[in-house]
Amino acid sequence: MAAVRTILEGFSRLLFALCALVIAIMALSVTYEVVSRYLLGRPTIWVTEISSYLLVAVTFLGAAWTLRIDGHIRMDLLRETGGWLGQRVSDLAMFAVAAIVSAALLWSGWHMTLANYNFGWRASSALGTPLWMPQSLIPLGSLALLIQSLIGVWDTLTGARDKRE
Amino acid sequence: MLLGFVFLGLLLLLILLGVPVAFSLAGTTLLGLFAMGGWGAVAAMSNTAWSTTSEFVLTAIPLFILMSEVIGATGIGRDLFIAVERVLGRISGGQAVATVVACAIFGAVSGTAVGVAAVIGGVAIPEMLSRGYPRHIATGSVAGGSPLGMIIPPSLPLIIYGVVTETPIANLFLAGIVPGLIITVLCCICVSFMVRRANVRSEPVQAGSVVDSIKLSLPVVLLIILVIGSIYLGIATPTEAAAVGAVGAFLIAGIQRRLTWNRVIALLYSSARTSAMLLFVLVGAMLFGYLLGITRMPQELTALVVDLDVSRWVIFTLIMLAYFVLGMFLEVTSIILITLPVIFPTVLALHFDPVWFAIVLMVNMSLAVVTPPVGLCLYVVKSCAPETSLREVIRGTAPLMAMYIIVLIALCFIPGLAIY
Amino acid sequence: QQTLRLGHYFATEDFRGLTAQHFADQVNERADDLNVEVYPNESLVKGREALQATSQGVVDIYSVYAGYLSGQVPLINVFSLPFPPPAYDDKAMYKLALDPKTVALMDKTFAKFGVKYLGVINSSGPAQLFLRNPVESVTDISGRKLRGAGGLSDVALRKLGASVVLLSAAEQFLALQTGTVDGISTTWSSYVNYGLADVAPTYLAATVVRAPYLLLMNKAKFDALNDAQRKAITEAVEDTVNWSRKNFAAEQDELHQKVVDQAKNVVEVSAEQNAELRKQMQPIYESYVEDNGEAGAQLMQRWHEVTGTDQ
Ligand code: NA
Ligand code: NA
Fold this sequence. Notes:
By secondary structure, chain A is an all-alpha fold. In chain A, about 80% of the residues lie in helices and about 0% in strands.
């Protein structure tokens, strides 16, 4: 059981580390574009497009671990005033809604990605990136978020979450 | 339209339950879409999530956050505060005044209010508390000064306003300068008055030489020149300037030997967390905007307001009140993205200047970042002083917010403050 | 009563916004049981997501600039081949677009994606070049940084030696003012409406691209309509095309006059230069046929016919 949890949470953690790395890459590549265009007079054809895909990565790869460390902004009124029960209800609502939302994003994101793959759709740009590649970040990140939400539901119901705090 | 209000009610309920804002927005949308169109309608979830996030202009969000993290984690922000404190520390309420001024200066580098609150709050609040300032003043002067980050250029919300309404961003940035400075002065007077009333007996600050202050603030000044300069010299677009600023902050911190491997990893993680949180709120807001759009509530509400047989200033006041209410529940970027396609045509139809309106909107949105339940700066400031209650933070912030409202009203009577 | 959501990219009062509204009004008038609601300003779906959103049914109908689809449906690039001959005016473009053979090919292509091709209801007019500094001819754009319009026209600008920079519409004014870019390829209406004459006073009248706006509909939604409803939609499209063509010409004349008045330097392109441009574009035209097989060859054939060019 503990091993399964380690693996599952390791998945979220790995995606989160990638998310941090992606932000650094984004800063460097946009700066490279500026330097290349201004000093060398040669704008790149890839920075603007790739950076917009990196933004999808930042959003979806970082979301799951952010949920794990309680980083998604929420109102703590019920948690602070509702006592033990209020805290349970509030946490359960958080993880349950997160689970439903991520399941919907996983399902619809998967269908979107698959359709783009089957239709062979590419970006209308010089790179002509097959759109399913960056789009697949959405079901990937949503999967991690779904797993993390279900772990949260379990921990809240079993009381493991109280012990951790 | 009625259905729109039902969804708003559901959203409010989820937020009050303590469901994170992003998931409350997305969850309400999911339920609404399903109720209105079954499984087929749920396809809009991924389509909207994709089109919201694959947008180059929004890369400025993680990049401005990264720059703030570098400045905060490496002590560059602390140096700026100490420099200002040494100059202003001797006057009445000196440190609170220095805090507001530091917010304004750092506002010229940062594009967001949250960035300013995090960097200045992390330094100024512990400093003021250690010198005997009451908690509400220590936290309130940071929370109240932080919106200067989005009024004084560069400004992420103004970039987004420009993109959505196709208003030249250069004009928007120029228009923010004077109102930003007026707010700074008014807030300084306000905090100085608050300190005097609270009868603070703070230890006097050691006065330093002006040369020392200049040396200490040099990194931040260099960054201001780098960010603003690269925009106005045609080197970078406002979006790209965020990246230039982030890399510039790394270089400065590296040259000053303030970067360790651990520190870099910690600040990247911290940027990742904040970015993922903000971007997910944005996705949720866009989803909710789609849902409200198909209920036609915003359209019909706008039509209702425009058709009212009243003066355009009455309508303007209604719009401002609506923004204030929205500002309580939503994050600034998402408010702009959701409302402008609907509100902006009205603004033009009533012959309001789009640049002027942008600045008025920014001043109004300054309230949004500090009003509960969703006031990002409130939470950031509170996390800098964990033992302070939210009520104390709000008590300290409210008088400064009055200054913003004064400037908002002044802008209505003297539009020349923003458009020159 | 069934509601159909029509999305587009423009302001309500823009000519293309008015055209979309005209179409909606026509449908609503002809079919009591249909109600077309218009969502302007990308308020429901972004322009570049038009095809995907229409295919998924996130929006029912969308009026989309053909350039946005160049990566998804390369076949439609025939409408927006870069630096077309002067003979490719709006009349020629509509002739190509409304040709029954073209319609049949488009219908078949879009049906694969679950999308019904309703037709072409607007033209972009010519997208031409506007620069910060004076130039004498098209050859002078070599070495300059230009904001591109996307699709094949970017490839063409690079072929002429220019560097293509990607910018959002809101950043273009500042970018021209400060010199982040040296010029821009855009339509007359954008030049006038965004006041670009202040920052890009040189007008180089070379047509980089002229593209149609396609009216697309979710196929499942269309197929579910009864015969009377379908007829109402088809008739509304016909009426809208006529309305748009009739009124667009006057609008364009007025805009062109404004462009010429506002620009400081107006640089016309001679017939020889145009011929030379065509020669340089030949490889792009050929690659279009290669990429699109039999259908591409047929459409290219029609393009040559309407423009009166030999192959
Ligand atoms: Na700023
Ligand atoms: Na708020």
